[in-house]
């Protein structure tokens, strides 16, 4: 049985050999080029080849859990090895492996059971309603696995909107109970409704309702489709049936007009009549039998990390007997009453409880950062510069796709095949130098960036070189669409030396640079800045193809990408040969991690790599309410005001119940301790 090292490298021996020879030839040629600048033609050929492969359909959009992303990691590893970099870092390979949740699936049938039990005897048929999986109820992916026996509370539409003077949870206690929640919102057919008229307001999505239930202490959510939604379905089905009837009538009129129809014409007429009649029958059957269809497993979204609460869609007909028995009124009447005066009609279903179990299985996959080292030489050799770029993308589209519902491969040529190609070029240039650099360079192709900086967060927790020896991090994400020489650099305020260094370097490159001082942002440099490491993040800007299947290789500006790679390589060299190291400083400026929208500004930076109850923080923005309240990196927010917080969605939902200037209690878990802090919220930004 081969060793791990031989097993990995033997798969690509000839590719690696060719790359090594190419690297040697280029390295030899570069000795005769002044200032170690790369031969533009050769560099652009390599960049084109790298982006072309990484953004090919063969790599399946480099989605987590696909064979394509494994091919991408192998390719990057082969390139690093061919350059002569140190890659025997993890069991003889460059792969820093860890496990991520990629999707969810419904567990075994016997582990998904549900009953409604009333106040009478358990043996009573009327008071013990056994529901059928797939017919009466269906667990949703946004929920979790659990066994439960919980009292029932009807909370209308499950909305808390203090600014609109509406709260379905007012006057009822949902803590430790299962809440019955109607989908959508009141007054859906009223164009003057406070809930955005006839359009869906921000309170309508399932995820928002689940967050609000969790905040109020609920232990399970039973979603029920509202009457207005069913009416819309019936109207749409009736319209389709009527269109078919009209087509049938038109066909009959045309046939009657025929003076002497042929035998073949008559046959075709009756065949068409039969086809249309069958369409009418099927649509009528659908309208009768599917007025209230069960939602698909992922309708409310994929797995909600952190929060532990089952979410189940239940048909109206299945839960209606319990509501009528407890309240003496049906759901349709309750909904009409709410619509009439926009006032909640929430109530405990006294004596009734839901008993059962849900099984929602998280599908996990192994993924990996690809790491390589160029060792330094001399007294500063232990000091380290990290150069990185993420290599994952969206596969065939996820919740992050800007083409919702698309099943096309999202090739991600700019995002971020361009950054990885540039990373390889930087590594090749630095590895090809005649003399070793005084400081160590660690090259990392990160995985899981699109799912929330998972790879870089894992690296800073388990670095190949201690972070205490890491003096700077340079990151490249989307560097393939240089337009009019416009280059964006984030993190320019994270080291005192950065402004002068950028000015000096740009005398040669003449980019039109937009500087962003903040160290937090939507890419992997954030994970390093959270550990108080100076960062620079290079980016050529977003575009209409961002997170769409149209982000393809033919739109890449290869000469522009080469120039960015050259600047990053020269930045790394300048840092490696400098007498001193960059001086970390806390950056001013608003972090561009997420937009506040219409909610108050808090200033927390989420850590998406954590999967535990609460909202985990990577850091807080300088001068923000979060910083002033005393929150720090590593804190986990588990309460905001009276709301329980299970994840970022819950925090966002709870924060929207306040306004700028409000003082709010924040409960955080710091290590094994719970701390109570107080924050004064800023107005929305």
How does this model look, in words?
With 685 residues, this protein is of the alpha/beta class. It contains 16 helices and 24 strands. The strands form four sheets. An eight-stranded mixed beta sheet has the order 1-12-14-13-15-18-16-17, with helices on both faces. The chain has an eight-stranded mixed beta sheet with strand order 3-2-11-5-8-9-10-4, with helices on both faces. Strand 21 and strand 22 form a beta hairpin. Helix 2 (13-30) packs across helix 4, helix 3 (40-54) crosses helix 14 (558-577) and helix 6 (227-257) packs antiparallel against helix 7 (263-289). The longest helix has 31 residues, at 227-257. The radius of gyration is 30 Å and the shape is globular. The two termini are 60 Å apart.
Q: Compute the separation of the termini in Å.
A: 60 Å
Order of adjacent strands in the largest pleated sheet: 1-12-14-13-15-18-16-17
Note the total helix count. 16
Largest sheet: 8 strands, mixed
Briefly characterize the structure.
Helix content is 33%, strand content 21%. With 685 residues, it is an alpha/beta fold. A hairpin with a 2-residue loop joins strand 21 and strand 22 (643-644).
């Amino acid at each position: 049985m081969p060793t791990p090292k031989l097993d990995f490298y033997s798969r690509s021996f000839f590719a690696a050999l060719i790359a090594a020879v190419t690297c040697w030839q280029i390295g030899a040629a570069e000795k005769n080029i002044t200032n170690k600048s790369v031969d533009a033609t050769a560099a652009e050929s390599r960049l084109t080849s790298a982006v072309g492969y990484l953004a090919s359909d063969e790599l399946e959009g480099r989605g987590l859990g696909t064979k394509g992303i494994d091919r991408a990691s192998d390719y990057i590893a082969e390139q690093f090895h061919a350059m002569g970099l140190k890659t025997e870092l993890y069991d003889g390979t460059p792969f820093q492996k860890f496990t991520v949740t990629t999707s969810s699936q419904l567990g075994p049938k016997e582990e998904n059971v549900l009953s409604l039990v009333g106040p009478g005897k358990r043996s009573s048929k009327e008071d013990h309603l056994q529901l059928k999986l797939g017919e009466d109820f269906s667990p949703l992916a946004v929920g979790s696995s659990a066994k439960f026996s919980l009292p029932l509370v009807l909370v209308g539409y499950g909305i808390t909107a203090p600014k609109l003077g509406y709260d379905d949870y007012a006057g009822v206690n949902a803590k430790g109970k299962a809440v019955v929640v109607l989908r959508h919102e009141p007054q859906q057919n009223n164009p003057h409704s406070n809930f955005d008229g006839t359009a869906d307001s921000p309170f309508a999505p399932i995820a928002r309702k689940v967050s609000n239930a969790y905040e109020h202490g609920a232990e399970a959510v039973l979603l029920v489709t509202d009457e207005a939604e069913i009416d819309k379905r019936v109207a749409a089905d009736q319209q389709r049936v009527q269109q078919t009837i009209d087509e049938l009538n038109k066909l009959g009129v045309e046939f009657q007009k025929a003076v002497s129809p042929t035998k073949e014409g008559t046959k075709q007429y009756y065949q068409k009549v039969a086809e249309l009649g069958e369409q009418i029958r099927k649509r009528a059957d659908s309208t009768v039998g599917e007025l209230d269809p069960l939602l698909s497993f992922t309708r409310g979204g994929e797995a909600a990390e952190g929060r532990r609460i089952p979410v189940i869609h239940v048909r109206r007909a299945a839960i209606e007997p319990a509501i009528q028995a407890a309240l003496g009124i049906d759901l349709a009447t309750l909904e009409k009453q709410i619509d009439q005066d926009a006032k909640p009609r929430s109530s405990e279903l006294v004596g009734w409880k839901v008993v059962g179990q849900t099984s929602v299985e998280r599908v996990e996959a192994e993924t990996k950062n690809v790491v390589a080292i160029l060792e330094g030489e001399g007294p500063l050799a232990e000091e380290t510069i990290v150069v990185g770029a993420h290599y994952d993308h969206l596969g065939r589209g996820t919740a992050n796709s800007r083409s919702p519902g698309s099943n096309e491969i999202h090739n991600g040529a700019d995002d971020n095949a361009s950054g990885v190609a540039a990373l390889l070029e930087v590594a090749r240039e630095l590895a090809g130098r005649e003399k070793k650099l005084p400081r160590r360079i660690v090259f990392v192709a990160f995985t899981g960036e699109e799912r929330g900086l998972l790879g870089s967060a894992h690296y800073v927790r388990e670095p190949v070189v201690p972070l205490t020896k890491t003096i700077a991090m340079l990151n490249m994400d989307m560097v393939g669409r240089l337009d009019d020489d416009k280059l964006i650099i984030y993190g320019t305020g994270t080291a005192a030396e950065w402004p002068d260094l950028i000015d000096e370097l740009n005398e040669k490159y003449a980019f039109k640079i937009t500087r962003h001082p903040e160290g937090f942002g939507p890419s992997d440099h954030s994970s390093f800045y959270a550990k108080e490491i100076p960062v620079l993040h290079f980016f050529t800007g977003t575009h209409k193809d961002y997170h769409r299947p149209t982000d393809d290789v033919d739109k890449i500006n290869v000469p522009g990408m080469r120039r960015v790679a050259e600047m990053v390589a020269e930045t790394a060299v300048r840092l490696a040969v400098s007498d001193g190291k960059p001086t970390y400083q806390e950056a001013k400026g608003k972090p561009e991690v997420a937009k506040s929208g219409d909610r108050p500004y808090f200033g927390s930076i989420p850590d998406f790599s954590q999967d535990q109850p609460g909202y985990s923080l990577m850091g807080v923005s300088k001068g923000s309410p979060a910083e002033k309240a005393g929150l720090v990196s590593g804190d986990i927010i588990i309460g905001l005001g009276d709301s329980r917080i299970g994840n970022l969605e819950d925090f966002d939902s709870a924060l929207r119940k306040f306004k700028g200037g409000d003082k709010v209690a924040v409960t955080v878990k710091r290590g094994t301790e719970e701390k109570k802090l107080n924050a004064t919220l800023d107005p929305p930004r």
